[in-house]
């Protein structure tokens, strides 16, 4: 494979602590390192019990628990969270939970500049990125700002033991999607390629073990390690067609985040494959499969994940509007983004059959 000899790579300051039990044993120390004395703990309503355990460990340095995180960070939720931070006189936040809790912590950081500590409980990878997302009037906006990148990330595999198998699988594929798109991103680099390959290999190995035994702490550790790597890939590169499609389906059509990633990924990869041979070569090695889109489709489906957008509740009549919306904004992708091309991808994802190599579409002249 040709060496990529033209790239730039930026290292952002983030401290990572990885240890079973670290949510309780390491978070207070991370806060102290950052000189924080008045922390607001942010979580979702279903993650409140775990978040309270972390809050208790923080003792007097915790000034409150805000449990209103929801998927895609509606802008009014961000407004309320910022008001809570100001009312409490907080000097920083600790987000405990999945991508939604971390997303709300990032929204606070974006508005206030306050430092964030992340204690992730899913495989979203958000903790390793400077990417924020906010949803307003049915549209999800995303952006990058170093201020939202958590300053410290506390990985505690024990926190993920309670993650139900369906979310384990779909969240794991959300992480895989970060690595897949990083492999063909215009700003990828050799280091990103190494992280993506290792992340895909580790996650693809861990997910079947977790479906068989969700309490396997070693497999939980491996999956969280993979999420770290895949999140780092997302943090260092520009997102392509896959992420854009998922943001439209989540932000405008209300589809669940990780499940949508799981359904869509094989079809976008099949579509982009002819224009991304190097990425495909890495994925073949990492997955040990000749046909990576098909292998991803089989992996998720064999572990019980949903296979079609129809199953996720997308109305058939929304396929074309969603595709046209996703195609309507310019963004980086190895293959030219056209309304016909995206409609072909979404039609296939709506139906949920095996992804066809190259996923050719009407009026499309890319060699398959
Ligand atoms: N900015 C980024 O870099 C980035 C990256 C990936 C995802 N995201 C965002 O993250 C959000 C999705 O995050 P998510 O997929 O982690 O879902 P989530 O945070 O919404 O969690 C999903 C559900 O699982 C529950 N849960 C979380 N951890 C659990 C655990 N260990 N045990 C039992 N239940 C648990 C939550 O309470 C929630 O009900 C979306 O808004 C997405 O846009 C952002
Ligand atoms: O924080 C967000 O909502 C935007 C980034 C994101 O969601 C990455 C993903 O699609 O997994």
Describe the structure.
Belongs to the iron-containing alcohol dehydrogenase family. It comes from Streptomyces africanus. Residues 13-157 form the Alcohol dehydrogenase iron-type/glycerol dehydrogenase GldA domain. It holds the Pfam family Fe-ADH. This protein is of the alpha/beta class and 368 residues long. It has 2 domains: 15-160, Rossmann fold (3-Layer(aba) Sandwich); 165-351, Dehydroquinate synthase-like, alpha domain (Up-down Bundle). 50% of the residues lie in helices and 12% in strands. The strands form 2 sheets. It has a 6-stranded parallel beta sheet with strand order 1-8-5-4-2-3, with helices on both faces. The chain has a two-stranded antiparallel sheet with strand order 6-7. Helix 5 links the parallel strand 4 (92-97) and strand 5. The ligand O=C(O)CCC(=O)CC(=O)O binds next to strand 6 and helix 9.
In short:
Belongs to the iron-containing alcohol dehydrogenase family. The protein has 368 residues and is of the alpha/beta class.
Primary descriptors:
368 residues, alpha/beta, Rossmann fold, Dehydroquinate synthase-like, alpha domain, 2 domains, six-stranded parallel beta sheet, 14 helices, 12% strand, binds nicotinamide-adenine-dinucleotide, binds ligand L4CXMVQC, Alcohol_dehydrogenase_Fe, NAD
Give me the secondary-structure topology.
Layout: E1 15-18, H1 22-25, H2 27-33, E2 39-44, H3 48-58, E3 62-69, H4 75-88, E4 92-97, H5 99-112, E5 116-120, E6 131-136, E7 139-144, E8 152-155, H6 165-183, H7 190-212, H8 217-236, H9 241-251, H10 257-272, H11 277-287, H12 292-302, H13 319-327, H14 339-351
Helix pairs in contact: 4-5, 6-7, 6-8, 6-10, 7-8, 7-11, 9-10, 9-13, 10-12, 10-14, 13-14
The structure holds nicotinamide-adenine-dinucleotide and ligand L4CXMVQC.
Nicotinamide-adenine-dinucleotide binds at residues 44, 46-47, 71-72, 97-101, 103, 121-122, 124-126, 129, 131, 133, 159-160, 162-163, 167, 171, 174, 234, 257-258.
């Amino acid at each position: 494979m040709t060496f990529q000899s033209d790239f730039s790579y930026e290292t952002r300051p983030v401290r990572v602590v990885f240890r079973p039990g670290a949510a309780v044993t390491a978070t207070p120390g991370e806060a102290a390192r950052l000189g924080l004395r008045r922390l607001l703990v942010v979580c979702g309503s279903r993650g409140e019990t775990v978040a309270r355990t972390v809050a208790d460990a923080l003792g007097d340095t915790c000034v409150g628990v805000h449990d209103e995180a929801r998927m895609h960070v509606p802008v009014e939720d961000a407004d309320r969270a910022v008001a809570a931070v100001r009312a409490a006189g907080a000097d920083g936040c600790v987000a405990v939970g999945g991508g939604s809790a971390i997303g709300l912590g990032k929204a606070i950081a974006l508005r206030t500049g306050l430092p964030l500590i992340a204690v992730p409980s899913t495989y979203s990878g958000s903790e390793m990125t400077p990417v924020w997302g906010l949803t307003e009037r049915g549209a999800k906006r995303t952006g990058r700002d170093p201020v939202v990148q958590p300053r410290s990330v506390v990985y505690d595999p024990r926190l993920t033991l309670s993650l139900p198998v369906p979310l384990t699988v779909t969240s794991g594929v959300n992480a895989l999607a970060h690595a897949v798109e990083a492999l063909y991103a215009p700003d990828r680099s050799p280091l990103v390629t190494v992280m993506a390959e290792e992340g895909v290999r580790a996650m693809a190995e861990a997910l079947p073990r977790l479906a068989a035994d969700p309490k396997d702490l070693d497999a939980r550790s491996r999956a969280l390690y993979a999420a770290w790597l895949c999140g780092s890939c997302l943090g260092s590169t520009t997102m392509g067609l896959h992420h854009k499609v998922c943001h439209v389906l989540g932000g405008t059509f209300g589809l669940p985040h990780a499940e949508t990633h799981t359904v869509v990924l094989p079809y976008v990869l099949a579509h982009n494959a002819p224009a991304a041979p190097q990425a495909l070569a890495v994925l073949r090695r990492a997955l040990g499969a000749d046909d990576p889109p098909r292998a991803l489709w089989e992996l998720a489906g064999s572990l019980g994940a949903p296979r079609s957008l129809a199953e996720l509740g997308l109305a058939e009549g929304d396929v074309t509007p969603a595709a046209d919306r996703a195609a309507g904004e310019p963004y980086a992708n190895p293959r030219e983004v056209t309304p016909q091309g995206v409609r072909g991808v979404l039609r296939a994802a709506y139906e949920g059959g095996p992804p066809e190599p190259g996923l050719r579409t009407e009026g499309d002249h890319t060699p398959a």
